[in-house]
Amino acid sequence: MKIEKDIQNHDAIGDNHVGSSFETPLRNDAFKLTSPEKIDIIKDDVRHIMETLGLDLTDDSLKGTPNRVAKMFVNEIFGGLDPAKKPSASTFENKYKYGEMLVEKNITVYSTCEHHLLPIVGKAHVAYISNGTVVGLSKMNRIVDYFAKRPQVQERLTIQIVKELQDVLNTQDVACVIDAKHLCVNSRGIRDVDSSTVTSEFGGQFKNKETKREFLDYINLDTTF
Predict the structure, then answer these.
(1) Taking the model in full, what pTM does it have?
(2) Residue ranges, the chain, pLDDT below 50
(3) Catalytic site residues?
């Protein structure tokens, strides 16, 4: 009876897109195994799933799938779990004294919903106001990509991007808006193919109505070239 109730609760959490914490939930021994060791274990697990589904893994098209999936999990779509892949936090003095907000918009987001392990695909728009230091433009994209490359909920991803840039730039004046489609909604469950999810996190001056409005106006500019 308790098992059935737990299953129902777990299903409800997934379908209602509930997150648990700001930090990505990781065990204390998350990095005890090397990447090759993780790939070997995951490869066997994927093979077992496919065999359980009744697939013939002797088929030329399928026999390499367990290894491909395992490598993809560890090295690519969940590579952001590895702290060694975190972008370096190099900043530079704002010598040109640029005092307005800097906006990096339409950053491509490829992430994975942690409830069903299905893709989250969308765009992130990130901004900050310098308090004396600046960061390279590509670093903002890399920070988004790093935190996206792990099992995620969109709310947590948005917060993690802002918190990281606040730490890197030593300022609270950072904002992020993400607009993304969740295949756990679009391709299963309710199967609403047109809906997308918008999340935002505003820090420091971006909590002010005028500053927030300016940022939102910037990300709505037509940038077709």
Answers:
(1) 0.90
(2) 3
(3) 113-116, 154, 182, 184
